[in-house]
Amino acid sequence: MGVLKRFEQRLEGLVNGTFAKVFKSEVQPVEIAGALQRECDNNATIWNRDRTVVPNDFIVELSTPDYERLSPYSGQLGDELSGMVRDYAKQQRYTFMGSIKVHLEKADDLDTGLYRVRSRTLASSTSQEQPGQAPAGRGPSAPRGGQTGGGHVGPPPMPSSPPSGAPPRTAPPGAGPQPHAQMRRWIEINGTRHQISRGSLVLGRSTDADVRIDDPGVSRRHCEIRVGPPPMVQDLGSTNGIVVDGQHTTRASLRDGSRIVVGSTTIVYRQAEG
C-alpha cells in the first residue's frame, strides 16, 4: 500500500472527530501530502552513493479562507503530515539533517483552493535521530525551494549551501547520477513492458518516438520520461496534455506505480532494484 493511501486512511479514521471540518475546506490534506512528497523529490540532494538528503522543514502557504478552516487543527495535522513525510522518505531511502516539521501559514496572494509549499533543510544537534533521518549536522542551510498547487507558477528554487562541516552535495567520482546504481526502470502500456535504458524516453504517435502509441488523442511527440533523479515526466507541448496520478499537469515527479494518462492510453511507471 502506498504512503499517500495509508495517510488518507489514517485521516479517514478521524473524519467524524477532530478533523471533520478540515475535509470541508477547498484544499484537502491529501493534496498537501502529495505536494510534500513532490517537494522532497524536487529538492533531493545526493551527497554520496548511499546518502540522499531532502528538506525537513516545510511551510504550507494557504489562502485566507483555507487557513482559517485548517489552522485550528494545525498541530495535529502537522504531526500527521510529518509522519507521512517520514514514511515516504524511508520508502525512497532519503535522509534528513534534523527533525521533520510542517507549518501552516496564511498567504494573502492566494485564492481559495490554491496553496504553495516551501521547504528548507535545517540541521539540529538536539533532535533525536529517527527512521529515515541522517545524523544532525552543524548549522542550518538556506531555504531550498518551493512549489504551488492549484495552477500557480512557483518561484524558482533558491540556491543554498550545505551545513558547515557537512559533506559536499555532489557525488564522488564514479558514483553516477543516481542514488541506486542498480535501479531498473520501465513502463507498462496495455500489458507490454518497455525498458528505460537511457536517460530519457519520448512517447508519442510519431514513428520517431522512442515508444510509439497508436492513439488519436496522443500527439506525435507527446511527453518525455526522464530518469532523474528524481524520475520525472514532462509534457512536450501536446494537444491534450498529460494526467499524472489523477492530476492534470505539465511536469511531475514519478514513483513506482505512478499512472500517466495520454489521450485514452494509461502508462504505468515502474522501478525496482536488482
UniProtKB/TrEMBL annotation:
<dbReference type="InterPro" id="IPR000253">
    <property type="entry name" value="FHA_dom"/>
</dbReference>
<dbReference type="InterPro" id="IPR008984">
    <property type="entry name" value="SMAD_FHA_dom_sf"/>
</dbReference>
<dbReference type="Pfam" id="PF00498">
    <property type="entry name" value="FHA"/>
</dbReference>
<protein>
    <submittedName>
        <fullName>DUF2662 domain-containing protein</fullName>
    </submittedName>
</protein>
<dbReference type="InterPro" id="IPR042287">
    <property type="entry name" value="FhaA_N_sf"/>
</dbReference>
<feature type="region of interest" description="Disordered">
    <location>
        <begin position="121"/>
        <end position="180"/>
    </location>
</feature>
<feature type="compositionally biased region" description="Low complexity">
    <location>
        <begin position="130"/>
        <end position="145"/>
    </location>
</feature>
<dbReference type="Pfam" id="PF12401">
    <property type="entry name" value="FhaA_N"/>
</dbReference>
<dbReference type="InterPro" id="IPR022128">
    <property type="entry name" value="FhaA_N"/>
</dbReference>
<dbReference type="InterPro" id="IPR050923">
    <property type="entry name" value="Cell_Proc_Reg/RNA_Proc"/>
</dbReference>
<feature type="domain" description="FHA">
    <location>
        <begin position="201"/>
        <end position="249"/>
    </location>
</feature>
<feature type="compositionally biased region" description="Pro residues">
    <location>
        <begin position="154"/>
        <end position="176"/>
    </location>
</feature>
<keyword id="KW-0597">Phosphoprotein</keyword>
